[in-house]
Amino acid sequence: MTRTTxxxxxxxxGIGAAVAAQxxxxxxxxxxxxxxxxxxxxxxxxxxxxxxxxxxxGADVSDEAAVAAAVERVAAELGAPTVLVNNAxxxxxxxxxxxxxxxxxxxxxxxxxxxxxxxxxVQQHMVGAGFGRIVNLSSTSALGNRGQANYAAAxxxxxxxxxTLAIELGRFGVTANAIAPGFIETEMTAATAAxxxxxxxxxxxVTAEQIPVNRTGTPxxxxxxxxxxxxxxxxxVSGQIIYVAGGPKD
Length: 250
Ligand code: NAP
What we know:
By secondary structure, the protein is of the alpha/beta class. Helices cover 46% and strands 16% of the residues.
């Protein structure tokens, strides 16, 4: 059997890095894509040290030409990508009355335009192969979150995008699902703690008290879920939003 090629965006650190490492451990050749190619080195080196295959790719997911070039390069160097994890993300939090148009546009561009451009570029390889797995990162913030009008709208948008991909691409053997994480310990949540003027450890402790499983999440929690959703055995799971939040969300 030929090896599956996966692309994970925003994989230099945080959730993306854990997903990339897990998919490589699952036997996939993984393109570790992030804004700065040199920033991908740590993730790539760790995968190679563990006996896996990985390629560092620098691209801004919101840049149409950069996305096209990145996907072409991955296909040429690792093989046609049939797994895509749209994970790249940013936050530009502020209450609505203080939110700038730039804050709004930046968040829309990375999450929604980025996922659209990446998916449109990769789907031809999936359709050609008659197999594909798309995983989009949403968030519990899609349900509404103070200070995150831009991010909540983008993450809710990811859910509609995911369901539509599932409907359009299902006949080609392609599934699309979204993971909506709750609180995951990364630089993104560390930045949230800093914005609120709280020590990160204290922020995690207070947050964990509100979570039914009584702990905050880790990037590996999301990597484990992604690993299942992109597996060959998950072919009848499509168009779903999986809340990975230590308890129910609706
Ligand atoms: P993170 O630690 O901030 O990592 C995000 C990565 O995405 C960074 O390496 C960043 O690069 C990269 N990136 C940003 N803009 C990009 C662009 N235009 N093109 C390519 N790469 C770009 O974030 P995380 O916490 O791992 O979050 C990963 C995903 O999960 C995001 O979509 C986030 O919204 C979602 N999520 C996270 C949580 C959580 O609790 N952490 C909860 C729910 C959902 P730079 O470092 O160069 O900026």
